[in-house]
Design brief:
Blueprint: E1 4-8, H1 14-22, E2 30-33, H2 35-41, H3 43-51, E3 56-62, H4 66-77, E4 83-87, H5 92-102, E5 111-115, H6 123-128, H7 136-149, E6 154-156, H8 159-169, E7 174-177, H9 196-200, E8 206-209, H10 211-214, H11 219-231
Parallel strand pairs: 1-2, 1-8, 2-3, 3-4, 4-5, 5-6, 6-7, 7-8
Helix pairs in contact: 4-5, 7-8
Bound molecules: cytidine-5'-monophosphate (C5P).
């Protein structure tokens, strides 16, 4: 199983992103480009970081009618990213359409993940705002099973749910988990969090880490600390 630390490049533009990455020298971390950076810079930033040899998780969380998602994914497929995602709430039909769009003529495709429930969501908000009455873990497992049925590579979920997802969907079903915080760092807006060291023992294949690295006084040291805790 592939274990990795993915740095969330939640920056507003190319200049800030490149000056952040320059601190890493020859090191080539696996990075995540999210909505903020992609909407600011477009596909150019993806191509530029690919050219630098970085592995890229393009985190755009598509959620629309199946036809639209299929066509959008076909465009993203041309960017040759390593990982991308959709919302599981978009239904199995939408996830299947996403996979179709992403699949290259030779049958291969980037890892396609489904977002189960955002790690900023808690059970009270699910119940009171979204009218989802089931417990969080049941909802996440159900969405993960849907993603597996649609043929996706895995899910984005909280580290608290990764072990259960693995148990229900199989060891080969990828769990990618944001909501990672060092024992001594702030939770920010995340609700369901875990340290890199604990994530390692909880069935997380890859951890996505943003502010604990990007907002650290020494981001390279914070990244190394993540690697040590998670992979060491
Ligand atoms: O700064 P922080 O470590 O909280 O960043 C987490 C990253 O993971 C953000 O880019 C956020 O958009 C993303 N993410 C998340 N929860 C999900 C899916 C993605 O926090 N369920």
């Amino acid at each position: 199983m592939r274990h990795d630390v993915i740095i969330a490049l939640d920056f507003e533009n190319r200049a800030r992103t490149l000056s952040f990455l320059d601190r890493f020298g020859a090191e080539q971390p696996f990075v995540k480009i999210g909505m903020e950076l992609f909407y600011a810079e477009g596909p150019t930033i993806v191509r530029e970081l690919k050219q630098r040899g970085l592995k890229i998780f393009l985190d755009l969380k598509l959620h629309d009618i199946p036809n639209t998602v299929r066509k959008a994914m076909a465009v993203l497929s041309g960017l040759d990213v390593d990982m991308t995602n959709v919302h599981a709430a978009g239904t199995i039909a939408m996830m299947q359409a996403a996979l179709e769009g992403l699949t290259r003529p030779d049958g291969s495709h980037a890892d396609l993940l489904a977002v189960t429930q955002l790690t900023s969501t808690d059970e009270a908000r699910m119940r009171e705002e979204l009218w989802i009455d089931r417990p969080m873990d049941q909802t996440v497992l159900h969405y993960a099973a849907n993603a597996r049925q649609a043929g996706l590579t895995g899910v984005v979920c909280s580290p608290l749910e990764a072990a259960q997802v693995k148990e229900a969907c199989g060891a080969g079903f990828l769990t990618v988990t944001p909501g990672i915080r060092f024992a001594d760092s702030a939770a920010d807006d995340q609700r369901r969090i875990m340290t890199p060291a604990k994530a390692k023992t909880h069935g997380c294949d890859c951890i996505v880490v943003g502010r604990p690295i990007t907002a650290a006084a020494d981001p390279v040291a914070a990244y190394r600390r993540c690697l040590e805790e998670f992979l060491g």
